[in-house]
Amino acid sequence: MGRTLDELIAQFDLSRITCHSALLDLEKLPEFNRLHLRRLVSCETQRRQLVGKLQVLVEEAFGSQLTDRAVLDPAYVERVILLRQGHVCRLQDLVCPTHSYLWTRPAVERAQLGAISEKVDEIATRVLG
């Protein structure tokens, strides 16, 4: 499913071009994007470029909310890309609100934690430690 640019060039045949309109199956587009992203991630050079792009996207999307700048560390960003590559279609998906937990810490007050769990001190120590 899906071909590289080199494969498309090798298989190109001008005699097969027709004048009818071609339709793209838009339902398959997310899967094609996912496959393309996986291909980029599998190449170390391309993966480093993706890390840089994602760092910029995170900074733009969550810059004022970043309490821990360690989330911009290239090793962490690369790990996120590697772990989420099969779950997203585009790099921009990783900075949408549903993935904000990857980049920001939730704002939870002590009273809220106390209502949820009796181990408030242990939770705070582990989160901040």
TrEMBL record:
This is Probable glutamate--tRNA ligase, mitochondrial isoform X1. InterPro entries: aa_tRNA-synth_I_cd-bd_sf, Glu_tRNA_lig_a-bdl. The keyword Signal does not apply. GO terms for molecular function: aminoacyl-tRNA ligase activity; ATP binding; tRNA binding. Keywords: Aminoacyl-tRNA synthetase, ATP-binding, Ligase, Nucleotide-binding, Protein biosynthesis. GO terms for biological process: translation. It comes from Hipposideros armiger. It comes from the Eukaryota.
